[in-house]
TrEMBL record:
Annotated GO CC locations: plasma membrane
Residue spans crossing the bilayer: 26-46, 52-70, 82-100, 106-128, 140-159, 165-183
UniProt KW keywords: Membrane, Transmembrane, Transmembrane helix
Keyword Membrane in record: yes
Protein name: HdeD family acid-resistance protein
Keyword field contains Ion transport: no
Short name of one Pfam family: DUF308
Organism: Crenothrix polyspora
């Protein structure tokens, strides 16, 4: 059997599994799509606030994760890699604290990281769209991927002038587009039960 035949067979099996999953669980995709759209609209309406909220939320998550790593390392001090786990925990606590202490600088940093995220997300969505291409509405995922990649290019081109609000705005637009595509896919597969 050729490698291309094997890949084709695997893609066909993945397609059938995805189709079955979408038909059985279309309501989950619908609810998720509506939630993404609502969050996206809120982020678009108040991008400055949503940018700072994102940084503060992330800061607390990183501090909490750091406390967990450091606490586990201290509690299990005889564990292999103790120093590395403790260093990781301390690093996470420091980075989280820096985000919490200066959220505006965190917004600037996260905006740059968001450009990388959108670039990778766009590439992955485009790949997934072509992977599920025979499914109805696959082009919504493709459009979402192309837009995410374009966002990455725009962020990198205008980063210094717009970083304080662009993160919230683009994240909101991205969530609205993702939500819309999930709603469309779920409603299309609702009828195919």
């Amino acid at each position: 059997m050729k490698i291309t035949d094997s890949i084709s067979t695997e893609l066909k099996q993945a397609h059938l599994k995805m189709l079955d999953y979408l038909q059985k669980h279309w309501r989950i995709f619908l609810i998720e799509g509506v939630v993404f759209m609502l969050l996206g609209i809120a982020s678009i309406v108040i991008p400055h606030v949503s940018s700072v909220v994102i940084v503060l939320f992330l800061g607390w998550i990183i501090v909490f994760a750091g406390l967990m790593h450091a606490g586990r390392a201290i509690f299990f001090s005889d564990m292999p890699g103790f120093g590395l786990w403790l260093a990781l925990g301390i690093l996470q606590i420091v980075v989280g604290y820096l985000l919490l202490a200066n959220p505006i600088a965190g917004v600037m940093t996260l905006t740059m990281m968001m450009a990388l995220f959108f670039a990778f997300e766009g590439i992955i969505k485009i790949y997934l769209a072509f992977m599920i291409r025979p499914l109805p509405q696959w082009h919504f995922i493709l459009v979402s991927g192309v837009i995410a990649f374009v966002f990455a290019v725009i962020i990198l081109a205008f980063w210094s002038e717009t970083a304080h609000w662009l993160l919230g705005l683009f994240l909101g637009i991205n969530m609205v587009i993702l939500g819309w595509s999930m709603i469309q896919m779920s409603l299309d597969h609702k009828d195919n039960q």
